Amino acid sequence: MQVEDAIKDIELGEDLCISCGACTAVCLPRALTVKPPDWELDLDKERCILCGFCVDACPLQLIKVKF
């Protein structure tokens, strides 16, 4: 039997995001940030560890972790 890693990805509904920053408060690796001058949410997928904390933190439910 061969064991393979589960491939996961994070999906962000950027078109509806209001950049409230709620997800950045729970993002331990700081993959999600809101910075000046535009104050828009930025996702660095290289830093993301796919923990899923941001999924519950998003008040608009715009973040999904996909398998």
C-alpha termini separation = 21 Å
- Give the overall form: globular
Secondary-structure element pattern, one letter each: EHEEHE
How many helices in DSSP terms? Answer: 2
Q: How much strand content do the residues show? A: 15-25%
Output the radius of gyration. 13 Å
Provide structural commentary.
The two termini are 21 Å apart. The protein has 67 residues and is α+β, with helices and mostly antiparallel strands. It has two helices and four strands. The protein has helices at residues 22-26, 53-57; strands at residues 9-12, 32-35, 40-43, 63-66. The longest helix is centred in the middle third of the chain and has 5 residues, at 22-26. 15% of the residues lie in helices and 24% in strands. The chain has a two-stranded antiparallel ribbon with strand order 1-4.
